[in-house]
Write a structure and sequence with these properties.
The chain is mostly helical. It has 4 helices and 2 strands, in the order E-H-H-H-H-E. 57% of the residues lie in helices and 8% in strands. It has a two-stranded parallel ribbon.
Length: 105
């Protein structure tokens, strides 16, 4: 597994955060007064799933659980499949074979 620099790890996190914010599962990002960190609680868990190469359905189930329990969304209304597909492709294209531990300085 290729180790990233701390700057690369921050960049990867920021890119995934942007993907999640664009997905905007509760529909708040169009409001400029809304906090940009609304979905930060999702970034780490999704990133760990992607690093581990978990199946898309595992990520879908985890997101569905978190969005229902933490954000109060109706499980039947949560549709993370397209987002998970985009995140999986992004991860494979940009960060394949990388892990969470930074390279030594």
């Amino acid at each position: 597994m290729r180790r990233l620099t701390r700057d690369q790890l921050r960049q990867r996190y920021a890119e995934l955060r942007d993907l999640i914010n664009r997905w905007d599962p509760i529909g708040v990002m169009d409001d400029p007064a809304w906090r940009r960190d609304e979905y930060d609680c999702l970034v780490g868990p999704v990133l760990r799933h992607l690093e581990a190469g978990h199946a898309r359905e595992v990520i879908v189930n985890d997101l569905t659980h978190e969005l229902a329990d933490h954000f109060g969304l109706d499980r039947a209304a949560i549709q993370p499949h397209d987002f998970v597909e985009r995140a999986t492709v992004w991860s494979a294209d940009r960060w394949a074979g990388t892990g969470p531990v930074p390279a030594p300085d």
